[in-house]
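Q: What would this chain look like folded?
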Amino acid sequence: MLYRLLLFFFSSAKNTNDNITTISPFHTTTTEPNSITKISPLHTTETTPNNITTISPLHTTATVQSLVCQNGGTLQQEQCICNESWTGAVCNISNFCSGQKPTTNSKFTFPKTVLGQFASSAERCPPETTNAGMHQASALCNRNTHLFDPPNIINCSLTLDNINTQVSGATVEVKRNLSFSTQILTSIPEWLTPHNITNAAQIAKALLSDQHITDIAVSAVTTVSQLLNASREIFSSVNNTAISELTKTLQEVSLREEPNPLLVQPNIAVQSLKGQANSTKPILQVQLIAFKGQSDNFSTDRIKLYTTKAEINQTGVDFQINITFSKGFNKTIGFVLYDNDQFFQSKSFKPSLDTKRRVISANLEENPENVHFTITPSADSTMSLNDFACVFWSYSENDWITDGCTKTVNSSGSAGCSCKNQQKANFAILMAFDINYNYSKALHWISIIGCALSVLGLCATALYQIRTRKSRGGSPTLLVVNICLSMTVFYLLFVFGINNPVKHMNVTRVSGENIVPESDHHKYRDEGPCTAFTALLQYFLLATFTWNTLYGINVYMLFHGPVSGTPRWFPKVCMAVGWGLPAVIVSISLGSTYRVDEPLGYRQEEFCWLASVDHKQTFSTKKPMLWGFVLPSLIMLISSTAILLYFSYNICKTDPNLNTSRKTPLKMKIFSSFSLAVILGLSWLIGYILLITHEETLKLILSFVFCLLNTTQGVQIFILFTLKPFLNSNPAILNSLHAPEIGLHKKSLYLWKNNKQESIESIESYISSDH
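A: My prediction, written as structure tokens:
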């Protein structure tokens, strides 16, 4: 527990496996639980005692008990969740092409690839070409043969600019070559720039405008899927017109009468369904569902279209869309599924969390009665849904709008939406999440006792220093008293103010209003004293380090000016620096990171301490933890360490001209160095050692040592700088306790100007006993 109580000064991290807040140096280790669900389309009907027919999955107890998932599949909700390379009830049916050469004469080799997807060759374009380092060829993993089709080879000097100028008006064969070249040139996400994405979008639009679903369209859809791998920062600079035209073209593609299962790629899927004009039983409902596999990408066997009542309203899916008609539909319905919203860059909604916002494009040739869709939140267990908005994309406003849509929350926790009179629209649900903060419990009793004893010890030390100030002068008393003052206030703030008194418990608060949220991260306004406690903790802890360093500087100046001692101006400078420098650092930290609407830019939520991680729970250099505490305190600790080494070296040096009877005992030298180390607060260096320690046993040992030394630092100062001198000044008590004899006061007799060893003995006595 001590480890958790004090290492928060360096960083805090969440462990999502057990939802317990733990403290660790600067980095987080997060294991996300596998919450993927696979749905079987097989259903049977059951009749309840009230003669109400319900729908339930077709399962038997014997089958469930004997179900053993193979090839890395995991059993969840009585279903085997397969990785993308396998399919079937127990993940025993291969869904990939083995890594191989497509033909015996081929010079290209390809890795293991999922059926229906393109593989990039291991061979790359040579260094002297324009596309040096780019894959030189690609091949489609054929669904029917489970083998790679003949490879498509790129001209290593060809660029997307060249392709964009050639694709318009090209013959079918030329378009085929250009489509495969475009697919290869967009296969590496790190190579995608705003200019490349704009070119590729224009090329894909031109290729998809062809009225026939061919291998050209398959390659073009693959290119579109690859574009969605680019980062949000890259897409923010992409030409919006090119992307809008591409999404409109995809809508038209989905309405074609020849559905092709190959138009499903990891980040995009295009599906269509043709109505039956002369059917005696018109189709009144159409449902498309998609559920996750282990890879969380689109796959043909995980996207289903249903038209019968028994198949409607399945649960546990990743997302589903239901379209109802009052008189049935006779024409074509098309769907385009986007795995993220990169093609729909909003001006009003600014996401900051690493969550997916899938987009469902429903395109109809006739007006529907209602479009209802649900999406399961994609956030992991570290976040919970706070609110959401049901929206569709407006090409005129180039943003999400909510007109005609209402929202509901299902019992399963999925966000549901209904929209009226939308014949062609790209639908989405914009969700705002709460981070699941894990607030600390009351401080452990050992820490409370340690801090309480330290406060008492520091108060006693300050009083003793003031009462005996005439025996040592003004500067030493000033320094020690201010160290005791800053440390006392810090300990009190730590005990009474470290826990956040205002706790935001994460309960879904879905409002009735369908309003687009500003971000996917729900923010709370500052509504408590936690920020004030954080600022005070930062100030008095930095003040403690500053006064410790000033004390070390005073010792250093005693070595360099043994006759005159410290200058007269030194106490005034100490007061200005000791209390002024921490105030400057705190002011900069607050002014640059704190906002009333976003207090977590400055502080944490679980503890009233400086913020160190971003919304993705990774350490951020923009947070004040680094430059508002870690770096300033590290600089001061390094300075204090250098002064301690200098002090220890000088007192351990032996002057050959000095009479051996005048030598300081080794015990006295060690005691002096240890006393200086305590007053300088060098035990905090253990915390920095923890930052670079990866061996768990050593880290645990250092954690307890760090906490023990720092909670009792006030007690140590009391023993070394108050109790010890007090015992030395009372011989009767000293003799009864058999304490070692140590010089009482700083008394120096300078017989000549350069008697430095005499001065060193005086400084040793100054450090070890006089305080």
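The longest strand covers residues 383-394.
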